[in-house]
Amino acid sequence: MTAAAAPGSPVPSPESGSSSASAPPPAAGSIPGRPGAGRGPATAPASGTAPASAPAPAPAPAPWKGWAAVCAVALGIFCLITSELLPVGLLTPVGADLGVSDGTAGLMVTVPGLVAGLCAPLVTVGAGRLDRRLVLCVLIALTAAANLAAAVAPGFAVVLAARLLVGVGVGGFWAIAGGLAVRLVPERHVGRATALVFGGVPTASVLGVPAGTLLGELGGWRTAFAAVGALGLVTLTALVLLLPPLPPSRHIAFPELPALLRENRAVRAGVVVTFLVVTGQFAAYTFVRPILQDVSGIDAGFVSTLLLGYGVAGVAGNFLAGARDAYRTLLVISAALALILALIAVLEGPVAGTTLLLAWGLAYGGVSVSVQGWMIKAAPAATEAATSLMVAMFNLAIAAGALFGGLAVDGVSAPAAPLGGAALMLLSAVTVWATAIRRRPDRLG
Question: For the residues of 217-266, what is the DSSP string, one character each?
């Protein structure tokens, strides 16, 4: 994986949007840190660290094998993010069955989000010279076992312990998988393969949770956890059969990650925007079920169906946002979500609730691809390092949002969660405008 710049190395800034003239970004499809790759901030070692020699690249797999491996990795991302967010649609039945409040049940989202945020950089660095295929298989196996354990848990404490293991799998897998497409398919297909891998994130967010909620409605919440555990075992089989050996191309040292964050203002701004918009989203979305029931007056039996509609709208939003400028898209998304969350907290009635929920899904569907696009533009020569920082903040923000929303729901009322989320979305829109758009209007492209 690509490393961040060392202290004192030239790093791209929001004003330039790329690496300095003396350090051009690597050519499309090249792997920074390998012989022949473009030289720049991504290949500079941290101070006092000797550069690691890259192993000889493995022979390129046959085209169909490469795409099959990409699909297996994308399935892994889908399974992991679905595992992380599964409790969103099951808070009320889990809480009722295990004797905890909705706010306390929200810890099922807070705990894995927090652990995943911490493990994204830790696993990336700690994996060292281990074959990435082995690391990914271990992480998905851990997540499958955790979901199966939650399905048979006798009490809420055991569920939380299992959710902690889910966080380890999510953070480590997502951070490592983000840079694998370039090693699995020919250079001309790297862009599409990377989009497919990262497509597992929004697809899980907008489809995995509604599907899990529907399964929970039909067979109980334990059935939903067991099903995701079984999906993890299927994914493990696919990874074992389809992934080629993936020796590390370069070892990343811990000092390289904070160096990129410290010296690249565009990356810093992207991390801040990620925190604001994702925290705002999950402050509200973690408690979407009680909001729909208590504010919109929607019958509990229709919630899972409406969340499936939210999911379909979210997939459409992902495709709409994918081909557009990341900065402008995040501005529009943040502003739209601020309005939607404020309205869903105060407008009563099933019609208003249903309409706003579908608009919510459409808007949020473009978040993951847009924040990834921000990082690519902010650090074109250090994409993997910037991505690991984004993954860490994305997951920490999920935890922060669930915790903030839980406090609001338990301390005030259900509508307080989306109102707080709306305030954070508004702050996100202001941050995007001030750091990316007002400075460089030519970037609106």
Answer: HHH-HHHHHHHHHHHHHHHHHHHHHHPPP---S-PPPTTHHHHHHHH-HH
Which of 137, 168, 172 minimizes the C-alpha distance to 245? 137
List the pLDDT tens digit at each of the 445 positions of the chain: 333 333 333 333 333 333 333 344 433 333 333 333 333 333 333 334 444 444 444 455 567 788 899 899 999 999 998 998 888 878 888 988 998 887 788 889 888 888 888 888 888 777 777 888 899 999 999 999 999 999 999 999 999 999 999 999 988 887 788 667 777 888 777 667 777 777 777 788 667 877 888 898 889 999 999 999 999 999 999 999 999 988 876 666 677 788 888 888 888 999 999 999 999 998 998 888 888 888 888 888 788 788 888 888 887 887 788 667 888 999 999 999 999 999 999 888 899 999 999 999 999 988 887 887 788 788 877 766 777 788 889 888 888 888 888 888 888 888 899 999 999 999 999 999 988 776 654 443 3
Residue type, 441: P
* Threshold 0.90, pTM exceeds: no
Residue identified by tokens 């281990």 is 130
- CA proximity to 314, closest of 365, 278, 360, 280: 365
